[in-house]
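Example record used in the benchmark description.
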Amino acid sequence: MIKRKTYTSQFKREAVRLMESSEKPASDVARQLGVIRNQVYKWKEQLSKRGAKAFPGAGRQKGQADELSRLRQELANGRRRGHPLAGRSSRHRRSCGEEFNFLLPVIEI
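Model output (structure tokens):
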């Protein structure tokens, strides 16, 4: 298994600065730095989107940042799928049986 290389925030910012200020093609700058061209473009995009908050640490952020991201993704997926009983008639919901009637007020749409 190949171990992934990690680069410091300073290295990434410098790579983007070199790519933007150099008259050489991005592929030449990336080759001199020992990275692939697309990686430098990704760093440039992250820097333009996040500014000073770009590259906060090494690798994936653990803890609250990961949890927040996961919850946002889960919420977005739920909105796309909709509620499991959405579009069903109230008659269909009532036909589930008496043992589930306690759920009806909770799932009313």
